[in-house]
Design brief:
This protein is of the alpha/beta class and 235 residues long. It contains eight helices and eleven strands. The strands form two sheets. Strands 5-4-3-6-7-9-8-10-11 form a nine-stranded mixed β-sheet. It has a two-stranded antiparallel ribbon with strand order 1-2. Strand 1 and strand 2 form a beta hairpin. Helix 1 runs parallel beside helix 2. It is globular, with a radius of gyration of 17 Å. The protein starts with a strand and ends in a 7-residue tail after the last helix. The model has no long low-confidence stretch (mean pLDDT 90).
Length: 235
C-alpha cells in the first residue's frame, strides 16, 4: 500500500511501481484550461489519473492500460478512491482505443515507456511497461493529436535526451510546446527528465525552467516541496 494525503494505492500487481516520474507529471501538469475530460495513457497503478482527480474538477477521467494485472489494479485503486464516480479504466491497446474513441479530451497525459535500447529483461510484464516498442512515441503523439480537444493540453515526462526528438515529432502532428521543465536529481547531477506540455498553437516566446528535486539525500528543495506538498504525507 502506498499512501498519499487524500488517497492510497496498491501496486503489488503492477510491473512499474510508483516512482518520482509519475508524481512529477501528476503534480506538474497544467490544468489552467479547467479540463472537463482527462485521459491518462498507460496508467499503470492509476497514480497520475488519481492525482489529477484530486487537482481538478473534471467530471470524466479515463485511463488506458494494456497490461491485464495493471488494469485490474488501477481499477481497484480507482474504486477505492474518493473520486470513484469520475474515474474509469479501459483495458485496451492504444491503437484499439483510438479506433473507437470515447470522445475528445481537454487534457491527455502520459508517462510513456521509454527505454528503446535493444536489450530485454527476463520479466516480460516489466518490459512491456518500460520499453518504447510497446508504445512508440509516434503512436502516442498521433493518438494525442486525434483525441485532443481544440484548446486541450497534452503532457508527458520523458528522458531529457529524447526531448528534441519528441518536440520535432509533435510539430509534425501540429502540437507545439507551451511549457517545458527540465528535471535534475540534485544541483550536482545532469538533467535526466523533461516535463513537456503541448497545445495546438505555437507560443511566440517559449521559456523553459529547471526543477531540482534534492539538496542532499532526502532533503528536498523548496520547489519540489511546493510542487508535491498536496500529495506526499511528509511534505
Amino acid at each position: 500500500m502506498f499512501s498519499f494525503k487524500q488517497f492510497s494505492l496498491e501496486q503489488d500487481q503492477c510491473a512499474m511501481k510508483i516512482g518520482t516520474d509519475g508524481v512529477l507529471l501528476g503534480a506538474w501538469t497544467p490544468i489552467e484550461n479547467n479540463p472537463r475530460s482527462i485521459l491518462d495513457i498507460g496508467t499503470g497503478t492509476g497514480i497520475i489519473a488519481l492525482m489529477l482527480a484530486q487537482r481538478s474538477s473534471a467530471s470524466q477521467i479515463d485511463a488506458l492500460e494494456i497490461d491485464e494485472n495493471s488494469y485490474e489494479q488501477s481499477t481497484d485503486n480507482f474504486e477505492n478512491s474518493p473520486w470513484n464516480d469520475r474515474l474509469f479504466c479501459f483495458h485496451a491497446a492504444l491503437d484499439e482505443f483510438v479506433e473507437e474513441p470515447e470522445d475528445e479530451y481537454d487534457l491527455i497525459v502520459s508517462n510513456p515507456p521509454f527505454y528503446n535500447e535493444d536489450y530485454k529483461t527476463d520479466n516480460p510484464q516489466r518490459d512491456l511497461a518500460r520499453f518504447q516498442d510497446a508504445m512508440p512515441f509516434e503512436d502516442l503523439i498521433e493518438a494525442a493529436a486525434l483525441l485532443l480537444s481544440e484548446d486541450g493540453i497534452f503532457t508527458v515526462i520523458i528522458p531529457f535526451k529524447e526531448e528534441e526528438n519528441f518536440i520535432d515529432l509533435c510539430a509534425k502532428a501540429e502540437l507545439y510546446p507551451v511549457k517545458i521543465t527540465r528535471v535534475k536529481g540534485s544541483h550536482k547531477t545532469p538533467i535526466v527528465r523533461s516535463l513537456l506540455a503541448f497545445k495546438r498553437y505555437e507560443l511566440a516566446v517559449l521559456t523553459a525552467d529547471e526543477l531540482v528535486i534534492e539538496i542532499n539525500r532526502h532533503e528536498y528543495t523548496d520547489e519540489y516541496i511546493e510542487l508535491t506538498k498536496d500529495f506526499y504525507l511528509k511534505m
